[in-house]
Amino acid sequence: MAAEEGPGAEGQGESTLTVLVATAVNALIAVLKFVAGALTGSAAMLAEAAHSVADTATELLLLTALRQSARRPDRRHPFGYGKARFFWALIAAVSIFVSGAVFAFVEGVRTMLGGEAEQTLAWVAYAVLGASFLLEGASWVQAVRQVRTESAREGVGFREWLRRTDDPTVKSVFFEDSAALIGLVLAFGGVGLHQLSGSGFWDGLASVLIGVLLTGVAFVLGRTNAGLLIGRQADRRTVYALRDALAARSEVDQVVDLLTMTIGTDQILLCARLDFDDSLSVAELERACVDIDADLHARFPDLADVFLEPVPRADPTMRRRVLDRYGGAGAQRLRGV
Q1: Which of 138, 222, 224, 336 is deepest in the core (most CB within 10 A)?
Q2: Which phi and psi angles does 270 have, rounded to 5°?
Q3: Which regions of the chain are under pLDDT 70?
Q4: Alpha-carbon distance 168 to 68, whole Å?
Q5: Which ranges in 198-281 belong to alpha helices (H)?
Q6: What count of other Cβ atoms lies within 10 Å of the Cβ of residue 176?
Q7: pLDDT tens-digit map of 97-137
């Protein structure tokens, strides 16, 4: 059975729009910040410029992720290319740290150890920071709008959707834009305190804090995408819904084991081991598997592939595997007890 192409056209298009908006905004802001950093000599401005360069590179990697993950399954990749989105999103998280956080740390420490430093054309820094905040705000609003749309569609809260989503592109843009807005506030504080005190220490401290901020964002996004690449179970509500749908079939006596894996955004692989009614003939069992497959695909659009395996519920080897994987309480929930 061929897998579906991946995320639907609507979801793919919305994610692409969110990433394109963020790419254009970050590229423009990076240029403005570098000019301001060169004119003012502000470490915080240079750190923010590196931040925007990192964000721009990240968005380009996310665009690559969207394009690669949309490819149809083929002979060499029969389950499709859905995990390409997770891979490139992981590389994007690494990019945030390498090209943004490290530069911010180095520039900040250098400035803090440099002692007194004259600040010139502070108004240029303020003007660029203000313009950047407006532009970043526009990108952030687009990301928030998509998160709210997706969370409402799935019937979960804003934070819950961010925690469990299998779309790393939107999550990456949201966290990057949120970090960018916080970074701009830190840079504003660094420039302002430098101007008031005449000490470059505050400017350098703001740069170090921006580095800490970027490190935190890179860690959160890296952990999310690493989990998806390793092979994360489908959302728990979906797992229980699949279990209930299988258990409700008249041909099925008991759901013995249920394995799911997210193989792409809005793509789930299902392997179900079922104890079928012993009275079924071979032909009836084959027909039941076909009917169950069609029913599950109709009810769960995110299902890419379904594998059904008839097994006896009393088999000791199978029972031990289930207990090892889920524990006693989990095995009972699997059976609907």
Answers
A1: 224
A2: -120, 130
A3: 1-13, 115-120, 328-332, 334-337
A4: 14
A5: 201-230, 236-247
A6: 31
A7: 877 888 888 888 888 887 555 666 778 888 988 998 998 89
CB 162 within 8 A of CB 233: no
Cα–Cα nearest to 272, from 303, 229, 250: 303
What's the confidence (pLDDT) of residue 117? Answer: 57
Nearest to 172 by CA among 286, 262, 93, 255: 93
What is the per-residue pLDDT for 294? 95
Reading the block at residue 324, the tokens are 């090892």
Structure confidence at residue 7 (pLDDT): 42
pLDDT, position 50: 82
Task: Check residue 335 and give its pLDDT.
Answer: 66
- Which residues 6+ apart lie within 8 Å of 185 measured at CB? none
| pTM beyond cutoff 0.90 | no
Is-contact 259 266, C-beta < 8 A? no
Looking at the DSSP assignment, which residues form a beta bridge with residue 276?
252
Specify the DSSP class assigned to residue 100.
Answer: I
Q: For residue 288, what are the contacts with CB-CB under 8 A and spacing of at least 6?
A: 249, 251, 276, 280
Return all residues near 284 (Cβ < 8 A) that are at least 6 apart. 251
Residue identified by tokens 């490139």 is 88
Is residue 114 classed as helix, strand or coil in its secondary structure? coil
Q: Are 180 and 107 in contact (CB under 8 A)?
A: no
pLDDT at 11: 54
Backbone angles phi, psi at 40, to 5 degrees: -100, -20
Torsion of CA 308, 313, 319, 321, to 10 degrees: -10
* Residue 237 in tokens: 């509500």
Say how far apart CA 252 and CA 274 lie, in whole Å. Answer: 7
Q: What is the DSSP letter of 278?
A: T
Q: How far is residue 226 from each of residues 86, 230, 248, measured CA to CA in Å?
A: 8, 6, 35
- Domains by residue range for the chain, with CATH: 9-230 (1.20.1510.10), 236-335 (3.30.70.1350)
